[in-house]
Amino acid sequence: MSLRTPLASARGLGSSHSGVHHWWVQRLTAVALIPLTLWFVWIGPGLLSADYDSARSFVGAPFNALLLAAFVVSLFWHAQLGLQVVIEDYVHTRWLEISLQVLVKFAAVLGTLASLLALIRVTLGN
Amino acid sequence: MIGPYYRPQLTSMLSITHRATGVALAVASLGLALWLTALASGAGTYGRAMVYATSPIGRVLLLGLGASLAFHFADGIRHLFWDAGRGFEIKSAYASGYAVLAFTALAVLGLIWLLFLGERGL
């Protein structure tokens, strides 16, 4: 049995039961995405017009691969945090809400893993 | 928010647009994962992916995506200033809102040039 009073365990956590963690990580990834997005928009047009070999050697260059990995991780992390709030706010059918939340988390993890695996394959050159 | 007594205002319209563009960009981020996977898969797969991406429909989608990104980027910075406790006055909130719209409009012009008019033939 816990000796902590209900107030002590609730204080600072709020209705989300996780305190300000969600809020903070949403902002942290937002700040990270500012320079990363600027860089991505800078390289994007060139990549769209590049042929396969030049696109591959560009993405496979160590520094570009690193920034792309950072971009993709921040992007999917930020996206799933945002979608979580949108679903919480607008979907009020419980089973649908839970299903969508699970779907979003799975899709975000799969998208991140697929991107990172692709980056590793391109970087290692096969 | 939407009800018989609701009057559209710049601030609330931008707020819901921030969410809508966020959802669109979240879906689009799967496209980035697909593009990277196609690049890792080989020249054939990558070529087919790029045919889709640079088709007329693909270009229109990229335009919508770029516009969403420009808006969400600028409005996101606006939100970060609010998080820091700055720019809450009605006047500032409207000024920054119009700045976000102006930035987005410029980005759309640039994207139209890049995707449909430019000589580089993306």
Any overview of this molecule?
The complex is a heterodimer of chains A (126) and B (122). By secondary structure, chain A is an all-alpha fold. Chain A has a single domain, classed as Up-down Bundle (3 helical TM bundles of succinate and fumarate reductases), CATH 1.20.1300. Chain A is 82% helix and 0% strand. Chain A has helices spanning 6-10, 21-49, 52-60, 62-90, 94-124. In chain A, α3 (52-60) packs across α5 and α4 (62-90) runs antiparallel to α5 (94-124). The longest helix of chain A has 31 residues, at 94-124. The N and C termini of chain A lie far apart (57 Å). The mean pLDDT of chain A is 92. Chain B has helices at 10-41, 43-53, 56-83, 90-117. The mean pLDDT of chain B is 93. Chain B has one domain (14-117): Fumarate reductase/succinate dehydrogenase, transmembrane subunit (3 helical TM bundles of succinate and fumarate reductases), CATH 1.20.1300.10. Helix content of chain B is 81%, strand content 0%. Chain B contains 4 helices and no strands. Chain B has 122 residues and is mainly α. The radius of gyration of chain B is 18 Å and the shape is elongated. The interface between A and B is medium-sized, with 35 and 32 residues.
Number of structural domains of chain B: 1
N-end to C-end Cα span of chain B: 42 Å
The percent range for strand residues of chain A is under 5%
General shape of chain B: elongated
What count of domains describes the coordinates of chain A?
Answer: 1
Return the string of H and E elements of chain B.
Answer: HHHH
Q: Tell me how many strands of chain A there are.
A: 0
Q: How many E strands of chain B?
A: 0
What would the CATH topology of chain B be? 3 helical TM bundles of succinate and fumarate reductases
Which sequence of SSEs, written as H and E, runs from N to C of chain A? HHHHH
In CATH, the architecture of chain B is: Up-down Bundle
Q: How big a fraction of the residues of chain B is strand? A: under 5%
Low-confidence stretches of chain A: none
Assembly of the depicted chains: heterodimer
Within CATH, the superfamily of chain A carries the name: Fumarate reductase/succinate dehydrogenase, transmembrane subunit
Overall geometry of chain A? elongated
